[in-house]
Amino acid sequence: MSATHKRFVAILWTMFWLPTILQVPLAAQTARGADIAVVVHPDTPVDDLSLAEVRRVLLGDRQYWNSKLPVVLLIRAPVARERDVVLRVIYQMTETQFKQFWIAKIFRAEAASQPKIVYSNDMQYELVSAIPGAIAFVDAHNVRPGLKVLRIDGHFPGDHDYPLR
Amino acid sequence: MHRQLLVIAVLFLATGSAWGQSPPLPDQTEQVRVLLERVGQLEKRVAELEAKQGVSPTPILTAAERTPVQKSESQGTTASPGTAHDQMAQEQAVAQQAEVHYPSLQVRGFADIDFSATDQKGTTSGFNLGQLDLHLASPLSRKISYFGEMTFNAHANGYTVEVERSIIRYDYNDYFKLSFGRYHSPIGYWNTAFHHGAWLQTTIDRPEIVRVGGTFIPVHFVGFLAEGNIPSGGAGLSYSFGLGNGRGEIISRPGDAGDINNNRAWVANIFARPAKLYGLQLGASVYRDKITCQNNPIVPAVPGCRLTNGNDYREWITAAHVVWTKGAPEFLAEFANVNHHQVLTNLVSNSQGLYVQLGYRLPWSEKTLKPYYRFEYLHTPQSEAVLPNLDLVESIAGLRYDISSYAAFKGEYRHASRDILKTPTFNGIVNGLFLQTSFTF
């Protein structure tokens, strides 16, 4: 590699990483809203997940709760606040990136289908209650009896350090 | 030449900007937002009515306090005819979502249209159709899925159709999934991450070491593949192990219709996605095969072995990759060493290939612009008897513009030095402008 080539690569390297290093965390720039509860079908054999584990589930890296029970992802339709929080905090993606992520995921044969889209809290509640292994994200004020609310990083919605808001 | 390139570049950028200024999405987004607000208001109203009828506000349930599934209290209330109709519609929608039909075929297409102009003597500038790629995914049961991929490729005398992938996969759990068929060899990162849809990748073309139809690494593999996660806590380890036919008579192709010798090739790949460094992936791969070189007079354009004399070669490919996939920045780096050992003479050769790609999704214009740069290096020594001369040093600088969630424009400048093009009167350096629109449908 010539010296000019090396210099060119070094300048580009610095240009690309510097903004990331200097970047102010995005979470600090957004207004705090109500907590988003992670709810599952009551028979799901899990009570507590770390945020990283929730991310693995949502990224499709974890597709089974156990060998007999597949994960069924439910995600609210665009513009719902629950979806905004999931995309911002867990996926850390824009709406476009999220769509592209799932197309690529299926294309790589890593998943057979995209998350199911739900259009209202009522629909979400019905589906989580009806589908074994279902997981959904609900405004903590709208959680209804019959659903299991998971602790995230050891915290329930409403706790000071709860990460999904 | 330079003036032509300049005019084309200006037209490309102007078209892209004009397209980007049209506001197709906000109307739909606004409508959806209004509808969702309306749904929210209605749900709130229902809750108020329930409260008036003496139903207590619902508490936040904890895992410890969880109760068995029971009918919502709201379902027990008397409903007016209008409400009953809405409820029926909702129940139908829920039932449709909850039901899963098998098989459930989904088809997705990818395509691209390209323009290229280079200063290489004897070549012409112009448009060409890229691959038309059809991808099929069909769950056959809760744990069995089929994936297929077909491409239609434009040639001077017509089109060829190629089965790129045809895989049936059985999932036992997250730790063990077994598939059979023709798949992309899990060597390195790019070959399994982006496949054939140009829209999926940031750049216009794949790196030379994983070029479709290239010979440096075997891009496809026919056999079986076991894959899954490895219980490893925050390290996020995963593995894949495959056994199959390996390189075919034409070494750029796998043995689709059968192996050329009685030796099976195997491939092993391990990678980590650490939980605390979301976006990072580190991995290493090993591939082992025995190649039997044969003359191929039928397809002379596709290189077989450089020395086609019926010799056997042991092939070891080792590869490693580091990628950061979050887009701001995007960083991909991959290295592969191809070792060939001639069985008869013990002659050994090592060929190396690498690329480093940097991209950055700019924060404005809704993160639709991504400038990028890629450096590529490939070296095959004189002692290499299987691969042709692939020596290359290349720099690519470009810009990707996502016109919508499903379509993109890309423009690239390339500066490449290829050993094979060198002549007494030509130094082998080629500059070129490449444009592409790629999309999924």
Folded structure, characterized:
The complex is a heterodimer of chains A (165) and B (441). With 165 residues, chain A is an alpha/beta fold. Chain A has a single domain (29-152), classed as Periplasmic binding protein-like II (D-Maltodextrin-Binding Protein, domain 2). Helices cover 38% and strands 18% of the residues of chain A. Chain A has five helices and nine strands; from the N terminus they run αββαβββααβαβββ. Chain A has helices spanning 3-22, 51-58, 81-91, 95-107, 121-130, and strands at residues 36-40, 48-49, 64-66, 69-70, 72-76, 116-118, 134-139, 148-149, 151-152. In chain A, the strands form three sheets. Chain A has a five-stranded mixed β-sheet. Chain A is globular and about 65 Å long. Chain A starts with a helix and ends in a 13-residue tail after the last strand. Mean pLDDT of chain A is 84; it is low at 21-31. By secondary structure, chain B is of the alpha+beta class. Chain B contains four helices and 17 strands. Chain B has a 16-stranded antiparallel barrel. Chain B has a domain at 116-123 and 183-440: Porin, CATH 2.40.160.10. In chain B, strand 1 and strand 2 (126-129) form a beta hairpin. Chain B is globular and about 90 Å long. At the A-B interface, helix 1, helix 2, helix 4, helix 5 and strand 8 of A face helix 2, helix 3, strand 3, strand 5 and strand 13 of B.
